[in-house]
Amino acid sequence: MMRTIDNETIDQVLNYDKMLEALYKIFISKFTMPVRHHHFYNTPDSAENALILMPAWTDKYLGCKQVIVAPKNAEQHLPAIHALYTLFNAETGVPLAQMDATKLTSVRTACASALAAKYLARENAENLLVIGSGSVAYHLAQAHSSVRNYKHIEVWARNSDKAQALLESLKEQGFTNVSLANDLQEAIQKADVISSATLSKEPIIKGEWLKPGVHLDLIGSHTPKTREADDEVIRRSTIYADSREGALHETGELAIPIASGLLDPKDVQADLVELCKANKLARKNEEEITLFKSAGLAIEDLAAALMVYEAVAE
User: Fold this and answer.
1) What are phi and psi for residue 102, nearest 5 degrees?
2) Residue 231 class from Cβ within 10 Å (0-12 exposed, 13-18 middle, 19+ buried)?
3) Among 185-189, 205-209, 246-250, where is mean pLDDT lowest?
4) What angle do CA 252, 116, 32 make, to 5 degrees?
5) What are phi and psi of 113, to 5 degrees?
6) How many Cβ atoms from other residues are within 10 Å of residue 213's Cβ?
7) What is the pLDDT of residues 116-132, one digit of tens each?
8) Are 203 and 141 in contact (CB under 8 A)?
9) What SS3 state is found at 10?
10) What's the CA gap between 56 and 65, in Å, rounded?
11) Strand 81-89 relative to strand 95-100, pairing
12) If exposure means fewest CB atoms within 10 Å of the residue's CB, which of 159, 206, 239, 308 is most exposed?
């Protein structure tokens, strides 16, 4: 019998440390992950919506995230993105569970970035800068704090009210070392790790601001025409990605520099699977600037959904 798992249960089960472990285990396992499917359709009022299907499977389980992107929803005060996750028995095809994928996506995204930072950020990193105030940004400080012991965390967002709300949320969760960054340039210049999840269409992170040894975790800009970091960031950084196939083509962060000839696809040093299988610090020295570009992977959703399903089944 298929279980319908509610958001309250998902909230109780999802745990940053356990999610990091679940991601690591699935990345070093045998899995199949086809390229995500995009289908575009027009609504009666001529808006173009998108249906995105993200399947992945192992020997035992098959899962698929179904995402609807409806840009005009803001006019009706509705979220622009709605997502469901369906989990099946891979051998029999029997549906096992269905759940809202919104929280799953936010937590697995933050934890995938933290997993990359485990291998790329300096082990003595002390200052974390979180840029953004959306659903993913609400999990970045917690996820990154699972892999490094930060003495100070700063939050910056274009919308000061939303930045303040994120700050208050972190304080309620027990973070005492957090503060608002009033000047983005100053915050970037002193950060050891920068985790950015914004909808910015133009670069807000300048390469000339980066100090030696910083690690950049770039989550926003999920279209080929938008980016959070400028060319100088790319020029100064050693590049990593969650997957070459997705990040090189689907994100402007890498697609734009490739199109201009600044970046060669071969410049991407490793993907997240390779980092996990090596399971050791990948940076060459304390001065190296590292960059991890996240495009989001279906196998991450499967890991998160399995974590919830197995907890409920127990």
Assistant:
1) -65, -55
2) middle
3) 246-250
4) 80
5) -65, -40
6) 18
7) 999 999 999 999 999 99
8) no
9) helix
10) 9
11) antiparallel
12) 159
Complete edge-to-edge strand list for the sheet that includes strand 238-241: 178-180, 152-156, 127-131, 193-196, 215-218, 290-293, 238-241
Nearest Cα residue to 194 out of 240, 243, 141, 246: 141
| Cβ count near 255 (within 10 Å) | 21
Instruction: Name residues whose C-beta falls within 8 Å of residue 227's C-beta, 6 or more positions apart in sequence.
Output: 200, 201, 202, 203, 221, 251, 252, 253, 256
Residue 168 neighbours by CB under 8 Å, 6+ apart: none
Q: Please, what's the b/e burial string for 258-297 (b: 16 or more CB within 10 A of its CB; e: otherwise)?
A: beeeebeeeebbbbbbebbeeeeebbeeeebbbbbbbbbb
Contact residues for 85 (Cβ-Cβ < 8 A; gap 6+): 63, 64, 65, 66, 98, 99, 100, 101, 104, 301, 305
Sequence letter at residue 28: I
What contacts 78, CB < 8 A, 6 or more positions away?
Answer: 70
Judge if pTM exceeds 0.70. yes
Largest CA distance in the chain: 57
Cα–Cα distance, 154 to 191 (Å, whole number): 9
Q: Give the Cα separation of 18 and 305 in Å (integer).
A: 12
Q: For residue 5, what are its two tokens?
A: 């798992």
**Residue 66, both tokens:** 């179904």
- Residue for token pair 């957090």: 178
3-state secondary structure 199-267: CCCCCCECHHHCCCCCEEEECCCCCCCCCCECHHHHHHCEEEECCHHHHHHHCHHHHHHHHHCCCCHHH
What was the pLDDT predicted at 71?
79
Is residue 106 scored above 90 in pLDDT?
Answer: yes
Place of tokens 């601001």: 209
